[in-house]
Structure formats: structure tokens, C-alpha cells
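Blinded run. Sample ID left blank on purpose so nobody reads anything into the name before looking at the predicted structure. Input follows.
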Amino acid sequence: MKAVPVSLLFLISLLVLSCGGDGEPQLESQPIGEDRVSTPTIRNVKGEATPCRPTTPSAALAYEGQVQANARVAVNWQGPDCAISAHPSFALPLPEEPLRIPQGARPNLQFSAPPATLSAYAWTPDFTAAEEIGAGQIEVPLDQPARSMNVDLLLEPVASQELPLDILPPGEYAVEIFASWPEGSTGYAFRVQIEVASGSP
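Blinded prediction complete.
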């Protein structure tokens, strides 16, 4: 099977101690095995293969009725009955269709459970080199010699907040999110198109 994508710049080895999570009404936790991070062998605490499917908090980006579910970019999860780890590669999975927002807008970032820590950055991949991978997603290469934009985004570790994309000029971006909980951590990716505001010269 094809290796599961993950950003090497922010690859982290993280340990999680829960196979479930409490969610807010807007989002539900994601069962492992229903997204791109689904190839690792899942084992129980004795190291035996198990049908157990742990869940992690999900994330979404929303703006004026548009909602974009995340593409998973990293996961390392362990619970009382099973454990799972993602495999790194040199490509980043992103939603096939971008979330379109006007310049100066701030979409809302939502989690199904409030994280303990949160970091994020936006950058400009070469979308002309993107490949379709099915399930409404694409992959963009991470080994690009130069990036025209790479910006850290300052966030608070809360369940819902505005993502400060208003600092970015018009263009298409990958937004990578890395969040942790007392139980563990995972990473997410979004695709955003910032459009010239109406009436701008």
C-alpha cells in the first residue's frame, strides 16, 4: 500500500493514552481507519493484531456556511486496548477543493475537544505538482526548494477560534495544524484560497 503522508518539518513522536474522546456538538471524533492515516497495523497492549479502532479528536475549518473537514497528516495513538502509529513520507495530503475566503477574513477553526496545546502555520505549496489520491484529497510534495510564503499562526488552545489568515495576501495555501491533549496528539491539514476582496484595485 502507499505510504501515509506526513509533514517531515513538524513530524513528532507523540503518545496518547485514550481510545475515545468527548466531542462538542459540531464535530465527532474520527475513527482511525477512515482517512489517509489508515495503513499502520493496529495492535493491542500485548502486541497482537486487534480489530480495535481508536479515535482522535477531529478538526474542521468553517467560513460563512462552508465547512472543510481536515486531512490527517500525523497520528500516534495508544490506548488501554490498542495502539497505532502513522508512517511518514514526502507528501502532504490536502482536501481536493479549497475553502474560499475573501482577503482579510478569518475562518473559524473547530475541534471536537479543546486541545491542551496548539500550533499552526501556513505555506504555499506548488499546487501544479499536486496528485489526486481519491477520497476528495490531493497530495502536494514537501521537498520544494523554495516557498514563497511560510507563516506561523498564533493560536490559543481552545475548541473554537478564528484562524488569523487575515495577515496573508491573496493566494492558495496549505494550513497545517498540530494539537495535543492530555491523552495525546495529532496533526491536520487544510487547503485555503484567499481571494482578492471585492472592490480592491
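Unblinding after everyone has recorded impressions. The longest strand covers residues 184-195.
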